[in-house]
Design brief:
This protein is mainly alpha-helical. Helices cover 78% and strands 1% of the residues. It contains 11 helices and 2 strands, in the order H-H-H-H-H-H-E-E-H-H-H-H-H. It comes from Adineta steineri.
């Protein structure tokens, strides 16, 4: 078991700079015209907004829970809202980024698909809108309007269990459609992106083409790496434990560690974005650059 004190300080140390980084990135992505109009930054901006919501709601409550869990009495409505934020924002983040990885292939290798306003509307904007609408409606019904009674879990961080997950088909749909499929898409699209970029560069020998799309490629692969190193172990352990029903002390311990590790996807996401955007790296260096005082010899 991970001590609550370790959980508290680990999350706090990561959360504070992550929140500042999120605000910094959103400010420049929303108010810098070139960054705002770039199609490949739209999904990145949406994911940062989801991060900001999570970092300002669920994570502070998470920090309060660890030192006060034995005395913190939470209402039914609060637990519903807490559960909705915890699970639905995590899933929304994964779904949107899975689409972002598919879209990278379109923007790099099939940019003619988004060459007109009409095409951009159907290929770029519509999938994002549909995913966000589906995500919100699905989890809003699951948590707030189920045809059964949700169960309270006062001793847990997420103090509610959605009764609809007692339905095996629905729970499997939630797991496979919202976790397995996005992780598989991120994995396959990452591998495919590397292979296609290297093949195109070798076949066409166009350095200009590579320079044009290098930023998008590096950005997508950097974020994909974050998802895979954190969420892939959790997904594998979840399948072993809950699908194949393999349960022993080692698997249970691994499950506890991977669940806790999965909470770091959102706080670490802004840092990966910051390091994968060269334009913002320059601005960050300028902001962090301290003025120097010149000492002149006296006569």
């Amino acid at each position: 078991m991970i001590p609550d004190t370790v959980k508290f300080w680990t999350i706090l140390i990561v959360l504070i700079p992550s929140l500042l980084c999120t605000l910094f990135l959103l400010y420049h992505l929303l108010f810098d015209r070139n960054l705002r109009n770039a199609l490949h930054n739209h999904t990145i901006t949406i994911l940062l907004i989801l991060c900001l919501i999570n970092e300002m709601t669920f994570y502070p409550w998470m920090l309060y829970y660890y030192p006060n869990q034995s005395v913190w009495q939470r209402s039914y409505m609060f637990c519903l809202f807490l559960g909705f934020l915890d699970w639905s924002l995590y899933i929304a983040h994964t779904l949107i980024f899975a689409w972002a990885m598919i879209e990278r292939h379109i923007l790099i290798f099939h940019d003619q698909w988004v060459s007109t306003k009409r095409r951009r509307f159907f290929v770029h904007y519509t999938p994002i809108f549909v995913l966000l609408l589906y995500w919100f409606v699905f989890y809003f019904v699951v948590y707030f309007f189920p045809p059964c009674q949700n169960r309270l879990r006062p001793s847990s961080l997420v103090c509610i269990y959605p009764c609809l997950y007692d339905n095996y088909i629905l729970s499997m749909w939630d797991f496979f459609a919202h976790q397995i499929v996005p992780i598989a898409i991120i994995t396959l699209c990452s591998i495919g992106l590397v292979i296609r970029v290297l093949w195109q560069k070798h076949r066409m020998r166009q350095m200009i083409h590579w320079r044009k799309y290098r930023k998008m490629t590096i950005q997508a692969l950097s974020i994909a790496f974050l998802y895979l190193i954190i969420l892939l172990p959790y997904t594998i352990v979840y399948i072993i434990r809950n699908i194949f029903f393999v349960s022993n002390s080692i698997i249970n311990q691994l499950y506890i560690y991977t669940v806790f590790l999965s909470y770091f996807v959102i706080p670490l996401y802004p840092f990966v974005c910051a390091f994968s955007l060269p334009e913002l790296q320059i601005k960050m260096k300028n902001i962090l650059k301290l003025p120097t005082t010149r000492i002149m010899p006296t006569t």
